[in-house]
């Protein structure tokens, strides 16, 4: 049996950034529809105080409750989440290589557009100096 120190009651849990973000999105969607907290609460079958707690992030929305909120405010579930990218070493390396390829294409294109010898020699001199730098 878990001890009281290990259990986490809603009263002792502090809102996380994610809880606050989801709550802000609930508030934003509710306001976009012109709904009051009371009206949303009625649609969800809960009290307006519970809506206040969701919107402040004080109470975390369960997956089922978030689905109900999304339906009530006519938003897709992903509307309530921050976009994020899962960075892996392989994907980070692939992205860096793609950026380098794009920059090389841009550089070659710009060099090909230089028509006078003096400017082309200056560009090559600059690139040579960059190649030697750490």
Please explain how this structure is put together:
The protein has 134 residues and is mainly α. The chain folds into two domains: 17-80, 434 Repressor (Amino-terminal Domain) (Orthogonal Bundle), CATH 1.10.260.40; 99-132, no CATH class. 63% of the residues lie in helices and 0% in strands. The chain has six helices and no strands. The chain has helices at 17-32, 37-44, 48-56, 63-73, 89-113, 117-132. Helix 2 (37-44) crosses helix 3. The longest helix has 25 residues, at 89-113. The termini are far apart. The model is unreliable at 1-10 (pLDDT under 50). One of its GO terms (molecular function) is DNA binding. This is DNA-binding protein. Residues 26-80 form the HTH cro/C1-type domain.
Kindly, what is the distance between the CA atoms of the first and last residues, rounded to a whole number of angstroms? 60 Å
**Run of helices and strands:** HHHHHH
Query: Spans with pLDDT under 50 lasting ≥5 residues?
Result: 1-10
The largest β sheet comes out as: none
Q: What's the gyration radius in Å? A: 27 Å
| SSE class | mainly alpha
Please bin the fraction of helical residues: 55-70%
How many beta-strand runs?
0
**Could you name the CATH topology of the largest domain?**
434 Repressor (Amino-terminal Domain)
Tell me the CATH superfamily of the largest domain. Answer: lambda repressor-like DNA-binding domains
CATH A-level architecture of the largest domain: Orthogonal Bundle
- The total tally of domains equals 2
Please state the overall shape, judged from the principal axes of the Cα atoms: elongated
Beta-strand portion reads under 5%
């Amino acid at each position: 049996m878990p001890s009281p120190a290990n259990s986490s009651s809603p009263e002792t849990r502090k809102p996380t950034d994610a809880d606050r973000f989801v709550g802000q999105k609930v508030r934003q969607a509710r306001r976009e529809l012109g709904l009051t907290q009371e009206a949303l609460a009625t649609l969800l079958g809960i009290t307006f105080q519970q809506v206040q707690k969701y919107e402040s992030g004080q109470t975390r929305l369960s997956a089922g409750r978030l689905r109900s909120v999304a339906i009530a405010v006519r938003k897709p579930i992903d509307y309530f989440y921050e976009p994020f990218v899962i960075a892996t070493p392989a994907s980070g390396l692939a992205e860096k290589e793609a950026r380098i390829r794009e920059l090389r294409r841009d550089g070659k294109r710009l060099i090909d557009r230089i028509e006078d010898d003096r400017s082309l020699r200056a560009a090559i001199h600059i690139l040579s100096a960059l190649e030697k730098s750490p």
